[in-house]
């Protein structure tokens, strides 16, 4: 009897944590998103679905832009992170942990400072652009700061470790004999990679992709520091609605719209990559 | 003991009070969100006399203020403790008024202590909201002799809190135009310069609805105090056109000084004290002007929440800061406009007694129209648009549509 209960008891703190800090607030937010009123007179539950209509019609542009930026940042992260993880896992030798530490090193510096340092780096007359301009490679009025690419690059930079680690974890655990087997069967290096290594590492890409895509889409720091007019992301809108305008219902409604869109995207993505197998490998 | 004036300004970094990026305050958003389900709730109005009945001194006061809004040695607070025996728990927790007020809102609505016995707010939407909701204790002027004697005329009859019933100014500042003469080869005199296509992509504007609204209104020749909803719309259209023409590089919350110094923007809406400090600190030659159309004056005010656990101590501290010599010491460090005009005389005397670099610095401060505006300057300075209760949403959404596109 006791033995049967043990696993449940062990899971209890986790469940309690989730219930208390996720499910309860979430339920509160759902209820809040359907109220009407204002902060002075108070909010009344009216099951006002209009909040959602307002949220979508007013902010669809920022929502779409956030998804686009998040996707862009994730793709850049995969492009940079996969080779890095691959190299560390297969060619890192005994210094693997050092390399991983190097990847994580920027995380020891505050997120805010890292983002601000980009402002200095990308400044019109800063170290990069200033130098390129002085040797005539760029026109004088060229600028990166306060543009969409600056935001996407900033996002990619800040979330890179989130994609390197899961991919590394999968590649590191991989049985290298399967690559040897591929070569024994006359697979070229490219074929061995495409048909053996890549499929095995997909769960890592999936996990890393999620861990990058979700936070980058909802991020509001990069856009406000590195963006310009017309680069506002949905996170900034939620923050403004909640803290500046104290318009809690709209803020809650936008949050759920964002959540719904993200979930939809993730399920589609999981389908495309074959979730069952992905989850299976992750569980091992 | 005063610090050796020789080392003053050399040993203390003078950052703008709003230099601290709002970002850390943004983390508060997360906290706010988890406290959802909270609605605004009006506190029952407390009769002025009743509030103070039975309130006693506790010997400690918790004070939240902007970062770097007092020197790092907390000189004036130490003087206060020495004079009264009351200790001050000083926290630089106000890094963004909206976020700070947003964080306090649920606690105040529930009538809970906020962890602060007094804090600073700017005379904007958040202050108006707190006043309307009855979250701020009435100040007992009878217990505030220094305040009553020394507060400047311009601050007695303000529009945000007539008669200073619930607030006492801490410092004021001007929002005008700053430009970098390294890149701008003519004198900037007008708000219209911010619309000049010649500066395409090199103009900074502020993202705060109240700040940008005033410039949009003044650009169209409208007095913010008399503006109507149609005027807001027209101002927003003008600002939108400025944005769509590619003239605006970025909408800044507060971090305009560095881009202006670096040349990422050539001219920008700016706060007087930040430019003054940057020039004093970094030796830059940034210019600050009050444009001919007018500019904005804002005031950071001290207030005591009704849930304060040490309102008597808070009141004493507020009053203490209105002693002219204390106000002078504070002004010397923060370089924003003190609500105590006598501070200027005291600083002038100090300048005469000082010599060398310290003297030059003090003289510059005393004569600066940014720290001590003249009557004529004041006449060109406008408050933020005063919003009737219930109009905030209409107002902010009009201007957020411009800055948060």
Automatic annotation (TrEMBL), chain A:
Q: Which InterPro entries match?
A: MetI-like (IPR000515), MetI-like_sf (IPR035906)
Q: Which domain of life is it from?
A: Bacteria
Asked if the record carries the keyword Repeat, the reply is no
Q: Which UniProt keywords apply?
A: Cell membrane, Membrane, Transmembrane, Transmembrane helix, Transport
| Native source organism of the sequence | Haloechinothrix salitolerans
For this chain, the family text in UniProt reads: Belongs to the binding-protein-dependent transport system permease family. CysTW subfamily.
Record localization: Cell membrane
Q: What is this protein called?
A: ABC transporter permease
TrEMBL record, chain B:
* UniProt keywords, alphabetically: Periplasm, Signal, Transport
Sections of the chain in a coiled coil: none
Q: Which Pfam families match?
A: SBP_bac_8 (PF13416)
Q: Which domain of life is it from?
A: Bacteria
State the compartments where it is located: Periplasm
Q: Which PROSITE patterns match?
A: TAT
InterPro entries on file = SBP, Sperm_putr-bd, TAT_signal
- What is the official name of this protein in its record? PotD/PotF family extracellular solute-binding protein
Asked if the keyword Lipoprotein belongs to this entry, the reply reads no
Major localization listed first in the record, in broad terms: periplasm
